[in-house]
Amino acid sequence: MFNKKGISAIVATVLIILITVAAVTIIWAAIIPMVSNQLDEGNACLEATSKLSLGAAGYTCWSDNMGDPLSINDPGLVIQVKNGAGGAELEDIKVLYNVAGSSTTLTAIEGAGETFGRITTPPTVIGDVVTCGGDLTNAVTQLPGDNEAVVLCFQRTTGTIFNDQPVSVSIAPVIRIGDALKTCDIAATLPNVPKCSALA
């Protein structure tokens, strides 16, 4: 007679349950933090995007004849950016200057190799010339805080940017998540950007 021994049904069931619990625990420990981080990042961007807007009447315009502080008349862009309350603090604002199917990305905070300067003093319009007060610089610009609005003036220093009237201008917030900067989705777009002289 053969003497065979096997695993009882109870022991086999307990082993299957233990293996299943161990697998679920390992997956839970690996997946949940990753999903949680993605949700936190998404929520932070959603808050930043929902509170950022682009001012239309009177402060957002394009000019092919910017006056001071440059001694030459160069084209430029003036935008008013409004920031609501709460959410992540803005680290930067990306501005998309859209012309004839292509776009150029500008930043409100300094960046390397740029062909434009920024001025935070509100512009004045006299006739066809838009004048942005203050010094044209690539220095850090003041971004709008909670419930604030600022006017940013971008003026070309080299190249051909701003030569053509934009089809639209869009803005996207840049926020800090952990140690990294994250550019969020476009928060606002202004189509048919008017000439500044039309607002005078």
Distance between the termini: 108 Å
* Total domains: 1
Strand residues, percent: 35-45%
| pLDDT averaged residue by residue | 75
Q: Supply the helix-strand structural class.
A: alpha+beta
Global Rg: 27 Å
What's the overall geometry?
elongated
Low-confidence stretches: 68-72, 136-140
Along the chain, the helix and strand elements come as HEEEEEEEEEEEE
Main pleated sheet: 5 strands, antiparallel
How many beta-strand segments? 12
Any descriptors?
five-stranded antiparallel beta sheet, alpha+beta, elongated, 200 residues, 1 helix
Characterize the structure shown:
- With 200 residues, the chain is α+β, with helices and mostly antiparallel strands.
- The protein has one domain (49-199).
- The chain has one helix spanning 9-51, and strands at residues 52-55, 61-66, 74-83, 90-99, 102-107, 116-119, 123-126, 129-132, 148-156, 168-177, 180-183, 188-191.
- Strands 1, 2, 3, 6 and 9 form a five-stranded antiparallel β-sheet that branches. Strands 4, 5, 10, 11 and 12 form a five-stranded antiparallel β-sheet that branches. A two-stranded antiparallel sheet has the order 7-8.
Structure, briefly:
The chain is of the alpha+beta class and 200 residues long. The chain is built from one helix and twelve strands.
Detail the topology: elements first, then pairings.
Blueprint: H1 9-51, E1 52-55, E2 61-66, E3 74-83, E4 90-99, E5 102-107, E6 116-119, E7 123-126, E8 129-132, E9 148-156, E10 168-177, E11 180-183, E12 188-191
